[in-house]
Amino acid sequence: MPDSKKYAVLTTRFEPHRGWVAPLRELGKRAASRRVPDFVFEHEKHPYLRYSPLLDGVFCAPCFAFNAAENVLVARPLIDWSNARKVVDGHTRSKEHINSITRADHFVRICRKEEQNVVEFGSTAYRQKVQKNREALTAIIEAIILCGQQNIALRGKIESRSNIRALLNYRAKADASLKEHMTSAPKHAQYTSPEIQNEFISLCGKQISSSITQRCQNAKYFTVMADESADVSDTEQFAFCVRYVDRESSGDHVVREEFLSFVVAESTTGEALTTLLTGEIRKHDLDPALNVGQGYDGARNMAGRIRGVQARFAEAYPHAKYVHCRNHRLNLAICHACHTKLLS
Questions:
Q1: CA distance 163 to 167
Q2: Mind listing the pLDDT tens digit of every residue in the chain (344 residues)?
Q3: Residue 244 in contact with residue 256, Cβ under 8 Å?
Q4: Is 299 exposed, middle or buried (0-12, 13-18, 19+ CB in 10 A)?
Q5: Lowest CB count within 10 Å: 37, 42, 57, 61, which one?
Q6: CB of 155 closer than 8 Å to CB of 169
Q7: What's the DSSP call for residue 60?
């Protein structure tokens, strides 16, 4: 597998910005003070050199990544600026440097998917196995997504008779790759365990959340809606939603209300919930200053004029106007109507 650290070494350069001044170093008792020479940053002539501002020295990136020698420019930085050009020219002509350049070029091309690695290139059977595994994994993920879209529980009391197993067995009748995977794959690599299912669900959730956040950012202004209530385990859950205007590909504008996250509320005071709300907004890469509305129920900790969430949040972001949630108001009206005697 390609090494991300090596890739970063080969592709990341230090670019002196405007106003940057290189450190000044005294070279010997009688030598004049010198700074890193300009030719180090001439990337067209020396594309392999990398300057480290931390060490105030220069490395050869391909040799640093693919050469085990203990030489200067490889294991330790070049810091002798008086002889820098001479050392670099000598290093460039060396056989070890030329071999490292070749290895680095192939490595970068593999990382960028511009060519195959040795294992993939030399083994047709390996490529076929990878393709079959991808097809089987795609089928498993699509079954999990289907259960989520149809609000169907994945598992039951018995794993062998769970909904996800039934769906996969049914699809395997017409899918040769999935059937082979279900019957012959090792038990530790079937990708159907509850832990793997939960991981896939989490990844799908992150993808959906990211898509909603992106549309909300495109709309620029948004409104937050939130509510907290205890679940069956008496854990206080804080539900966070956003409301924004989405422009569809047809050019029509649609008002959307989207759920983004559940988060455990350790405290239900107005101050704690305000901190929690602001944290969730920032967590989803939204700017609280662009929030133009708040929608909560009428509870004191949420709607209080002094210490409620709406008051505390509006103090920091005055454009966020509070509106009592319409659904909560309807619920209150219905409850009140149920206790009112009809006049004859």
A1: 6
A2: 567 788 788 888 888 877 788 888 776 665 556 788 888 888 888 899 999 888 889 999 999 989 888 889 998 999 888 888 999 999 999 999 999 999 999 888 888 877 777 666 667 777 788 888 899 999 999 999 999 999 998 887 777 788 898 999 999 999 888 998 888 888 888 888 888 999 999 999 999 999 999 999 999 999 999 888 887 888 888 899 999 999 888 888 899 999 998 888 888 888 999 999 999 999 998 999 999 999 998 888 888 888 889 899 999 999 999 888 888 788 888 888 888 776 55
A3: yes
A4: middle
A5: 42
A6: no
A7: E
User: Residue type for 113, please?
Assistant: K
Fill in the amino acid letter for 54.
Answer: L
- Looking at residue 216, its amino acid is C
Phi-psi label, residue 153: left if phi above 0, alpha if psi -120 to 50, beta otherwise: beta
Determine phi and psi for 240, rounding to 5 degrees.
-120, 125
The owner of tokens 């956003």 is 242
Whole-model pTM over 0.70 = no
Enter the tokens of residue 218.
């495109």
Secondary structure element (H or E) that encloses residue 50, with its range: strand 49-52
- Amino acid identity, position 188: H
**Strand pairing category for 321-324 and 291-296:** parallel
Q: Which residues pair with 163 in a beta bridge?
A: none
* Sign, CA torsion 308/309/314/319: negative
Q: How many beta carbons lie within 10 A of that of residue 103, not counting itself? A: 15
Separation CA 84–CA 300 (nearest Å):
71
Give every CB contact of residue 177 below 8 A, 6+ residues apart in sequence. 132, 135, 136, 139
Task: Using CB atoms within 10 Å of the CB of residue 291, give its burial: 0 to 12 exposed, 13 to 18 middle, 19+ buried.
Answer: buried
Neighbouring C-beta atoms of residue 325, cutoff 10 Å: 19
